[in-house]
Predict the 3D structure of the following.
Amino acid sequence: MNSSNSSSLMGALLSEDQIPPPPKPGQPITGKVVNIQNNKILVEIDGTYTGIIAGREAVDGFNTAKKLMEGDEASAYVVGEENSDGYFILSLRKASREKAWDKLKEMQETNETVEVAIKEANKGGLMTEFNGIRAFIPVSQLAPEHYPRVNGANASEILSRLQKYIGEKFTVQVLAVEADEGKLIFSEKAALGKKRDTAMKKLKIGDKIEGKVTGIVNFGIFIMFNSCLEGLVHLSEITWGKVSDAANYARIGETKEAVVIGIETDKISLSTKRLTSDPWLKNVEKFMVGDTVTGEVEKITSFGALVKLADEVSGLLHTSEITEEGNEKIELEVGEKVKAKVIEINPDNHRIALSMKELNEADKPKKKSASVKTEDDVKKPAKKKAEKTKDSEEEVESKKKVSTKEKKEEEK
């Protein structure tokens, strides 16, 4: 065989069995595990090169390294060129991130939930991660149990509340995922969606519940119950009587009982006072419309005065029902004793209306009413007088007749 034939044969053999190019950093590869020893995994690439997975690059969110066995196929990313030992540096961790983004998109489509650990907190929400991908849970997406209800939206107080959750595990659902921008947002509230919908369908007005106090604000107390529902006990529904500060009636984390008094879309209204009978109804039994009562002015308002009549019972003395002396209006003061008349009792609104005006008008002496004389009224006395005169004349004439008769008899 001459040299020309020999070279052409070698070229043909090389063309049939070309050597693949070496892998480059940033390139994904799939290879066969040929050896696992001392936390190092050797992977054969294209039957020609060998890659090594070791150290932090062997750790991913799927525990892939612990599951691999010799002969298995492994997906990894090339993160380093061939080293002095002839190995290309591979990473399961980076490959896992790519798999994680795909998994997250799938979870978003199927509304799948996942448990994550809270790593950090800021005034806007909580930071966590999923298979090495940093994720954010906005405050607005926290479950009622973890939502930081703070009066006046005090930023430092909100942050202080959120920091308490660092290290805890939350069950969340994917709200937004954008791999190209590295954006991942979770929602704890959405993860409760199905469970909450089911619980809401079963909830009825009048149901008694027991739950944990999750928030205390100026206008009331929030209670979470059935592990996914939250309701508000408004200031006016905390207890019978007046409540000025809800913090005097509950503590965060405390267990409380309440009754459901309203359900409107996502809003649940609760009451703790309606678990007991209304003392106002009992105390007001002693009063009736028309009664004269005496009480002490306990508050002056723009529309009148509140007068305390008994325990838990006050009456409203409206400005229009306060008497006037001459042209000067009476000015009442807190602590002053007043006497008034009960003019209305409204049990539904816990309202007693009072009036000083009606009481004083009733006490005034009644004047004789003036009347206008009619023609008949004028004629009646004259007629009576004429009748009386006629009677007198007839009586005189009768007497005359009797006298004449007697005189004739005497003459005989």
User: Anything to note?
Assistant: The chain has nine helices and 23 strands. The two ends are 217 Å apart (CA to CA).
